[in-house]
Amino acid sequence: MFSETRYALNGDLRVAYRASREGPRDIVSVANWFSCCEVLPEVPSIRGWLEAMTSLGRYVLFDQPGTGASDPVTPEALPTLEQWADSITAVLDDLGSREAVLVASNAAFAPAALFAATHPSRTTALVVLGGFADAAGTALAQDEARAANLRMWGSGKVQHLLNPDMPWNEEIRASWARMERLAVSPRTLALVRPLAMGMDVRAVLPTVRVPTLVLHHTDCVAIPPAKGKYIADHIPGAKYVELPGRNWYHTVEPEWRASFQEIHAFLTGHNADVIADRVLTTVLFTDIVESTRRAAEIGDRDWHTLLDAHDAVVRSQLARFRGREVNTSGDGFLAMFDGPQRAIRCAMAIRDAVQALGIEVRAGLHTGECEIRGDDIGGIAVHIGARVSGLAGPNDVLVSSTLRDLVIGSGLEFEDRGAHELKGVPGEWRLFAVASP
Q1: 187 burial class (0-12, 13-18, 19+ CB within 10 angstroms)?
Q2: What pLDDT, in 10s, does the model give residues 132-163?
Q3: What strands lie across the sheet with 123-129, from one edge to the other?
Q4: Spatial separation of the C-alpha atoms in residues 203 and 82, rounded to whole Å
């Protein structure tokens, strides 16, 4: 999707950037206070966003000096706001681009605003996502937030705190952790973060004379909507749109589609038809029976050892039956399969294998259309699977009638468990337990 990393010259500093194929317009994603254009396109959480944005034109990612693949900086020569804005010029010049749409998230708004005000002829439009003209009064500007960032940096956990509604599992955490580590080291973060949080471009806003769209999430955990509204109120003619959501980033699930649709309409004059990736899949939920009681009986240390053994068994059986782990929390797993019979046989194998550990599991399965959200899944089929699992007893492999009907002729036998109402799901659902061989 993107070119190999290239370098543009900003003074005596080299700025790393990557670009997608050419399109009807150039769109520059102005780098935040941490980024790594080498690995950013590989982060599952933002793949959907990147694919959508590249449909609008040539999309450009770059790293500010001191971050990612760009030249490092020293405490004696930290980049200034002007130098950060000059990075945009450097990248456009290296691309041979006359003008571009600037897309700026959070702290990247400051250099984007300065560039737009200084170079209006090179700024087609300005799009602001969860931005602020100054960070004063926000949780991010507090010393406690600074200490927490440094303490957790490199683990990926900071990203989940800033985006609590973003789908989260071990693979997603690991991808963000790698991004953090390759974007900026903890020591450099300690140097650069105060610069990003200390930028104040409120005086610049009235001089921005380019078409501007400001998007903000209503319940953003990091920056209150008032900060976004301030930007829109002080840039002449700016459009402000407040969208539902708590995430700071507009580029991740579950809200990126709504933000993209606003941007599409703003740049093209008509609405985009953004269809979620959907696929028929069989979902499997498992969890350990009476896990709380068992943990209390054997103590934390032995319980964690037992959990590790349980997890190893589950993952071994998922690999055996071509299942894909979606996420795990505590003593439960959610997995998906491309074949309903394989899903049932995997559940049976897990049930039988963990008995050697002295524990029992319950399993619930359903087949339906799911929405693929990066490495996570969503939709009514997932809710049904969870409700079926909640009705399963010890050693039960409980399935919906939909799934039972798909494996007729497989040799699997079932016991009718009757009709049930599933909380939050319309109608009655007949459930079946897989008969033990």
Answers
A1: exposed
A2: 999 887 767 566 666 677 788 999 999 999 99
A3: 6-10, 13-19, 58-62, 26-30, 100-105, 123-129, 212-217, 239-243
A4: 15
- Mean pLDDT throughout 381-396? 93
Q: What is the per-residue pLDDT across 86-138, written as a single tens digit (0 to 9) for each?
A: 999 999 999 999 999 999 998 899 999 999 999 999 999 999 999 999 988 77
Residue 384 has φ and ψ, to the nearest 5°, of -65, -45
Look at residues 74, 62, 49 and name the one whose alpha carbon lies nearest to residue 9: 62
In whole angstroms, give the CA distance from residue 254 to residue 377: 11
- What backbone phi and psi angles, to 5 degrees, belong to 206? -65, -15
Using the predicted structure, report yes or no on whether residue 371 has a pLDDT greater than 90.
no
| Distance (Å, whole) CA 84 – CA 75 | 16
Instruction: Please give the pLDDT value at position 370.
Output: 85
